[in-house]
Amino acid sequence: MSEEVNPFESLQSQIDGAAAHMDVGEDVLERLKHPERVLETNLTVEMDDGSLDRFRAFRSQFNGDRGPYKGGIRYHPDVTRDEVKALSGWMVYKCATVGIPYGGGKGGIVIDPDDYSEAELERITRAFAKELRPLIGEDRDIPAPDVNTGQREMNWIKDTYETLENTTAPGVVTGKAPDSGGSAGRVEATGRSTVIAAREAFDYLDTDLEGATVAVQGYGNAGWIAAKLIDEMGATVVAASDSSGGIYSDDGFDPVAAKDHKNETGSVVGFEGADEEITNEELLTLDVDLLIPAALENAIDEGIAGDVRADVISEAANGPITPAADEVLAGKDVLVIPDILANAGGVTVSYFEWVQNRQRFYWTEERVNEELEAIVVDAFDALIDTYEEHGLDTLRTAAYVVAIRRVVDAFEQGGSWP
Ligand code: GLU
């Protein structure tokens, strides 16, 4: 990850880039570029040995014009205030791009979860949930999983909130386990929208996904599911990586077996079904038809972009391409499906989960997947229309043009308040 690029500045430059093609006042534009509020807190938590440890944590509520703040909570040692602000802003424009009735938020704890026991992680999560309690709620702000968090953490947050509030409110978080009110299809949803969007892009370019070669950077929940689903669609996964390194096979490998190997050993590296080991940088510059960055921000910076040889990139991660790299890729006619569409399946199925929680009525996985498919395909078509109509350079700018318009309309329709 290139350290110089601040994700919050990337977000602001993406907004400016789209606003240049729109009629939005400078004053309104300022509002679109800054969070409404950011909680910064220090959690003091007892460790298993009886000592106390302190953890910095953040929750940014970027914009609530279109509905409750919505977005995940990540556990990572590199979490910063600006990163969380950026991620919360991306959530605003993601929800608007796919037309679901939410604003955007994001949270994070500065922690490497591998260094702590499950009991310690539970106490840390509950301490954060206690700090979040006055801010969150089914109609206020709804956290969800993100990097290094999942059903387990969401179940703890729900339980802490419900206990302190003396109520049942399963819709206060999404991404829960099914028996705690989670939705069918939620775990797969981010990877699923990433590949649906890629399929639509191939169709738009009039190229075949069947037999296309695919490289996946990052083999967490988003990356490995994307690899599995694209393989099922007939493409060939030739490369995958995680923070320890990557693997490559000219004629492809079984993405599920690679995940089993990672579950057993902690990494895809050493997987016997692949021919070679490669670095993350080598993976990003492979001559493949489709590249799926599914790790962290800034994976593809200006330097690497010049060497990228993929034809299509579908962003499963948030913010994996820097604004300068975006320009380089556009100049090389690489079609980039932006994160705020490609990975929007996660928050879209979170929305379905919340709807089911509010109605106490649960859907089949088939229904979840059908409704997700319809939303992603419609949103993709809307981006293509805007891209062509305005003659834009990138689908990212098209997505921001669509999304900013929706946020501005909601804000302006609300009128002013003294
Ligand atoms: N963390 C995911 C994202 O970045 C999901 C957010 C959600 O479901 O609210 O989109």
Order of helices and strands: HHEEEHEHEHHEHEEHEHEHEHEHHHH
Percent range for β-strand residues: 15-25%
Main CATH class of the largest domain: Alpha Beta
CATH topology type of the largest domain = Rossmann fold
Secondary structural class: alpha/beta
- Report the CATH superfamily of the largest domain: NAD(P)-binding Rossmann-like Domain
- Enumerate the spans where pLDDT stays under 50 for 5 or more consecutive residues: none
Share of helix, binned: 40-55%
Key terms for this structure?
Rossmann fold, alpha/beta, binds glutamic acid, 5-stranded mixed beta sheet
Summarize it.
The protein is an alpha/beta fold and 418 residues long. It has helices at 7-19, 26-32, 81-97, 118-132, 151-165, 189-204, 221-232, 255-265, 280-284, 302-305, 323-331, 339-342, 345-359, 365-389, 395-413; strands spanning 37-46, 52-63, 69-76, 104-110, 141-145, 213-217, 236-242, 245-248, 276-278, 290-293, 312-314, 335-337.
